[in-house]
TrEMBL record:
Bilayer topology annotation: Multi-pass membrane protein
Pfam families referenced in this protein's UniProt entry, alphabetically: ABC2_membrane_3, ABC_tran, ABCA12_C
Domain (ABC transporter): residue spans on this chain: 591-828
Alphabetized InterPro entries for the sequence: AAA+_ATPase (IPR003593), ABC2_TM (IPR013525), ABC_transporter-like_ATP-bd (IPR003439), ABC_transporter-like_CS (IPR017871), ABCA (IPR026082), P-loop_NTPase (IPR027417)
Principal location: membrane
Organism for this UniProt entry: Brassica rapa subsp. trilocularis
ATP-binding in keyword set: yes
Residue ranges crossing the lipid bilayer per the database entry: 34-52, 320-343, 363-389, 401-420, 432-453
Higher taxonomy: Eukaryota, Viridiplantae, Streptophyta, Embryophyta, Tracheophyta
Compartments, as annotated in UniProt: Membrane
Protein's name according to its UniProt entry: ABC transporter domain-containing protein
Length: 906
């Protein structure tokens, strides 16, 4: 026995996932080709790096010797000195970072001397603070002893390392900070740092200590002091600030504010050294002097770097050009995802799955998870291969940061694909646009967006605005990771870590995360109002009641009492029967339509098209109803309304007591559909199609296997291995038979068949009729066809549609009796005897009507009331004696005659 309950969300999800995995298995070589693209690009990057190393790094990036016996900086060229070994680094006197004279906080006083350098201080005890500040620098002799005894400072930018202090070798002076500067207090000293020896001028500058009442006042004043100099460097007007807090004779508790704005944001020098150690030493010595006197101090003689071995320049060119290639690699998944979604839309496979019971929740969960899984595996292969062949982008940056970034980026990409799929209905167009997006994003990123990123004058707000474009946000993240890898390789350290997660990376990660969620919600919303035909405000509308009695009683209000057009008695009788069913609220009707209408709005100046005009129809369980009519009569529009593809303009309809306007999701679990055109996956076999749709009908285990076998046998697709062939190898008739089998699997309560026998040979058509006859015992069938023979064999009742309205309804015998009250006489003679044949026929029946004539063959319509068959035979025998009769025949009215007559008179 089959399970009559609708399939659960998990069952539907399992069916869709199995189908997707099989489809992916069919595309295995396409996937292999897709994965080889990042492999190829990674190998290409490695080759570029090797070529660069051989042509540049080996020649210019190492220490050279002009003398074979000795080697060192003095024997190297200027561009090689940076790579030579330094076993004994130079010792440099510790300095303070002070503002240039024009940027100092106090510039109007002491005009005869240089402007003072200002220190702010605060704490719980002002007098103690003043004492400590006085102890920091004194009126010592102008010169004598080691430079470490003086409080020296410089306004020159600090260097990246202390191998060579820029303050001592630059043209800018070094300042000696004192309480008072006497005239001519400058002096010159000889700096001796082997192998260099040069004079350096030391200028006196007055130190000014300013008390502030609280640390918040200090903080405000320091930040207020930030300004931009001529070189666009941020300059602090104050040298430093000290908060002595609760310092007393028993404890030293001090916070030191220092100038940390001297940064160089280039790749090679991400940050300059900060001259902080001397500030800490000054505070400590000031406190020691307060406790023990001036003879007690911590002697801070010099600073120096660690010994340096000989190095070689390694410029990671792959990290510099990596953002372009890596952007292409990641975005290559976008066309794959987009074309898959658009393919399902173009082939109407999504709506086909929906009509067979696949809900929106399992579709979104499985489809989204499926794309995430495929994308994740793709990115893992990319990252693992990149690390294996030695790309620093992957090796040096923290793998967890890469994982988080790639996961967010692929989720954003999938959301964009879902949203973009709503804009395309053709796979070719979507493919072209997708690849333009891929390659255009990479090129615009490296030639435009990166230029703006590296321009310090470009407004930051515009950078953020550009990053709202998903392609640029991806490029920005890859750019940050690449720059970190480049700097890390140059310096011989690790790349990006969580502790130094830069502002740019935080910014772009947050933007991508927020965009991912917003675009995903937007894509789901558009999907609901397109595929599910929900109201644009469905989020805020209350779900209608699922009660069947409630639907029937409400529909009474919609019964039309007046009709503009005069309907025929059989059609009026059907309408009255529908109204009676609605009043009784009976559940015996499988399908119940009440005054159903569909109007298509006019376009390009054309008037509105009334496709279905107030159709009322009651279809009982176990009945097969045939819809006949010329092309464009409205048959397919009626089926599309009943299957939820389009919404009716007015009226109501019920399937198994469920309203098509409010309960379409529940209706889908009880119906089967054979559409006018075959909606199949080319790369799935017939068996795989039936397994998928069988699972959607809640068939499981042996029941599912048996149902699939029976379905394949019933439509002659079992033998010869046809059931296991991919659909792309099927003929048109085989596809049609498979569509019929899909519509009937799971024994649905109501089945819609739109011209099911189109393209079938006579044997297959006869076999198909047997299948339909068996199926109507278990449910109701609505069938459209142009084959009168098929309609007469299969249908219990027929309705002829013309111009969107039902012209007549009844069983085939009734229709032939009602609209076919005549015999058809056909006689073939020589052409000169045509007049004699016509006279003979009129003697049989005065109201006989000639309906066909060509080359001696004439066909007449004889009213049954005036015609006796015996008289026809006697007249023909008499005619044979008078002139040659080649052939003749007398036939009763066929269903085709009825169809033609009704279509022509409507």
């Amino acid at each position: 026995m089959t399970d009559s309950r609708p399939a659960s969300i998990l069952t539907q999800a399992d069916a869709l996932l199995r189908k997707n995995l099989v489809f992916q298995k069919r595309n295995i070589w396409s996937n292999v080709r897709l994965v080889t693209i990042p492999f190829f690009l990674c190998v290409l990057l490695v080759v570029i790096q090797l070529l660069f190393d051989s042509q540049f790094n080996e020649d210019h990036g190492q220490c050279g010797c002009l003398n074979e016996k000795t080697c060192g900086i003095r024997y190297s060229t200027s561009d090689q000195a940076a790579f030579c070994a330094i076993p004994n680094p130079s010792q440099w006197t510790p300095l303070l970072q002070i503002p240039s004279p024009q940027y100092r906080a106090v510039t109007t006083l002491y005009l005869s001397h240089s402007s003072p350098v200002t220190f702010l201080f605060t704490g719980n005890n002002q007098s103690l603070g003043e004492t400590l500040m006085r102890n920091m620098y004194s009126n010592s002799p102008e010169f004598g002893g080691d430079l470490a005894n003086y409080v020296l400072g410089s306004s020159s930018l600090p260097a990246y390392t202390n191998y060579m202090d820029s303050s001592f070798i630059s043209e800018l002076p070094i300042y000696n900070i004192k309480h008072q500067c006497s005239p001519n207090s400058s002096f010159s000293i000889l700096i001796h740092q082997p192998p260099l020896s040069f004079p350096k001028e030391i200028n006196c500058v007055r130190g000014l200590n300013l008390w502030r009442n609280s640390s918040s006042d200090v903080n405000k004043e320091l930040f207020k002091g930030y300004r931009k100099g001529n070189q666009q460097e941020k300059i602090n007007e104050y040298t430093a600030a000290f908060d002595f807090q609760n310092t007393n004779g028993n404890r030293l508790n001090v916070n030191v504010w220092y100038n940390s704005t001297y940064k160089n944001n280039t790749v090679i020098r991400p940050m300059a050294l900060i001259r902080v150690p001397r500030l800490v030493n000054l505070a400590s010595n000031a406190y020691l002097e307060f406790l023990k006197g001036s003879k007690t101090k911590i002697l801070f003689e010099y600073i120096k770097e660690m010994p340096k071995p000989e190095t070689k320049l390694t410029l990671d060119i792959t990290s510099l050009i990596g953002p372009l290639f890596f952007t292409w690699v990641i975005l290559l998944l976008f066309p794959v995802i987009l074309t898959t979604l658009v393919y399902e839309k173009q082939q109407r496979l999504r709506i086909m799955m929906k009509m067979h019971g696949l809900g929106d929740a399992p579709y979104w969960i499985v489809s989204y998870s499926y794309f995430v899984l495929v994308s994740t595996l793709y990115m893992l292969c990319f990252a693992i291969f990149g690390s294996a062949i030695g790309l620093n982008f992957f090796r040096l940056n923290d793998y967890s940061i890469q994982l988080v970034f790639f996961l967010i980026s692929i989720n954003l990409q999938i959301s964009v694909a879902f949203l973009a799929s709503a804009m395309f209905s053709d796979v070719k167009t979507a493919t072209v646009v997708a690849y333009i997006y891929v390659f255009g994003t990479g090129l615009l990123g490296i030639f435009l967006f990166q230029f703006f990123l590296e321009d310090p004058h470009f407004p930051r707000g515009w950078i953020i605005a550009m990053e709202l474009y998903p392609g640029f946000s991806l490029y920005r993240g890859l750019y940050e990771l690449s720059q970190s890898a480049f700097a890390a390789d140059y310096r011989g350290v690790n790349g990006m870590r969580w502790r130094d997660f830069g502002d740019g990376m935080k910014e772009v990660t947050c933007i991508m995360l927020i965009e991912w969620l917003l675009l995903l919600v937007s894509a789901f919303y558009i999907d609901q109002i397109t595929y599910s035909s929900k109201h644009p405000l469905f989020f805020f509308l209350q779900s209608p009641s699922k009660n069947k009695q409630h639907h029937y009683s409400n529909s009474n209000k919609q019964i039309s009492k007046f009709f503009v057009e005069m309907e025929k008695p059989d059609v009026c009788q059907e309408r009255e029967k529908v109204e009676q069913y609605l009043l009784e609220s009976t559940g015996n009707c499988a399908v119940l339509c009440n005054n159903l209408k569909k109007v298509y709005s006019g376009k390009d100046g054309n008037p509105q098209k009334l496709a279905v005009r107030g159709l009322s129809l009651a279809l009982l369980q176990g009945e097969c109803f045939g819809m006949l009519g010329p092309n464009g009569a409205g048959k397919t529009s009626f089926i599309n309304m009943m299957t939820g593809i389009i919404k009716p303009s007015s009226g109501s309809a019920f399937v198994q007591g469920l309203d098509i306007l409010t309960d379409m999701d529940r209706i889908y679990t009880t119906i089967g559909v054979c559409p006018q055109h075959d909606l199949l996956w080319d790369k799935l076999s017939g068996r795989e199609h039936l397994l998928f749709y069988g699972r959607l009908k809640n068939l499981k285990g042996s029941v599912l296997t048996q149902a699939v076998e029976e379905s394949l046998r019933s439509v002659n697709l079992f033998h010869g291995g046809n059931g296991d062939k991919q659909v792309r190898r099927y003929s048109g008739g085989m596809k049609r038979r498979l569509s019929v089998a899909i519509s009937l699997i799971g024994n649905p309560k109501v089945v819609y068949m739109d011209e099911p026998s189109t393209g079938l040979d006579p044997a297959s058509r006869k076999s198909l009729w047997d299948v339909v006859k068996r199926a109507k015992r278990k449910g109701a069938i609505i069938l459209t066809t142009h084959s009168m023979e098929e309609a007469e064999v299969l249908c219990d009742r027929l309705g002829i549609f013309v111009n969107g309205s039902l012209q007549c309804i009844g069983n085939p015998k009734e229709l032939k009796g009602r609209y076919g009250g005549s015999y058809v006489l056909t006689m073939t003679t020589s052409k000169e005897h045509e007049q004699e044949v016509e006279e003979l026929v009129h003697r049989i029946s005065k109201n006989a009507k000639k309906i066909y004539r060509t080359s001696g063959t004439q066909t007449f319509e004889l009213p049954k009331k005036e015609t006796k068959i015996a008289e026809v035979f006697q007249a023909v025998e008499k005619a044979k004696k008078m002139f040659p009769v080649v052939a003749w025949g007398l036939a009763d009215t066929t269903l085709e005659d009825v169809f033609v007559k009704v279509a022509q008179t409507s």
